[in-house]
Design goal:
The chain is mainly β. The protein has 2 domains: 90 residues, no CATH class; 67 residues, no CATH class. β6 and β7 form a beta hairpin. The protein is elongated.
């Protein structure tokens, strides 16, 4: 239904549900003087929310100039995707488990030594390609000594205290 106040007095379209939410799903253009919280000229879609600005909702904001966000607002940890200029930011956590369909994995290993192996979950249909970075006093050289569809081996020239990695899937196994 078209309404003059779908969210904080903004005119737009509201989709009434049978739920007793304070905010029903809605779509509006941000035309509030000064741009409001989403920026002047933004097209915004909000999911329903049981208690406004408290229980959590999903937000899609397409901003003037091409910036965007798709994220969870309120209700605990932020998670989502925000594109601003040339920057793409991902918020949230990677699951502790994984699946064969994961395209990217990011992780950190603490208390490591000068080499090891990392294996996770179900082997995928393609090979992992890890990018490694180590934290330690002094400089270290790192090398991947073997990759498969669910693991990779690595070595360092000396002990490291933390190993960070980003692993991408690609090719075939």
């Amino acid at each position: 239904m078209l309404s003059e106040g779908v969210y904080s007095g903004r005119p737009g379209t509201q989709y009434r549900t049978s739920l007793s939410d304070q905010l029903h799903p809605c779509v509006f253009g941000e035309g509030v003087s000064g741009g409001g919280s989403y920026g002047l000229g933004a097209l915004v879609a909000l999911s329903g929310e049981q208690t406004i600005n408290s229980s959590g909702r999903a937000t899609l904001a397409l901003r003037r100039g091409g910036d965007f966000e798709l994220q969870r607002e309120f209700a605990g940890e932020a998670r989502g995707i925000v594109g601003s200029g040339v920057t793409l930011s991902l918020f949230g956590r990677f699951p502790s488990g994984n699946s064969a369909g994961d395209l990217v994995r990011v992780g950190r290993i603490l208390g490591v030594s000068s080499g090891g192996s990392l294996t996770w979950g179900t082997p995928g249909a393609s090979t992992l390609y890890p990018v490694l970075s180590a934290f330690a006093a002094g400089s270290r050289s790192l090398a991947c000594t073997g990759v498969s569809s669910s693991s990779f081996n690595w070595t360092a020239s000396a002990d490291v205290s933390q190993l960070w990695f980003v692993a991408f899937r690609g090719g075939s196994s």
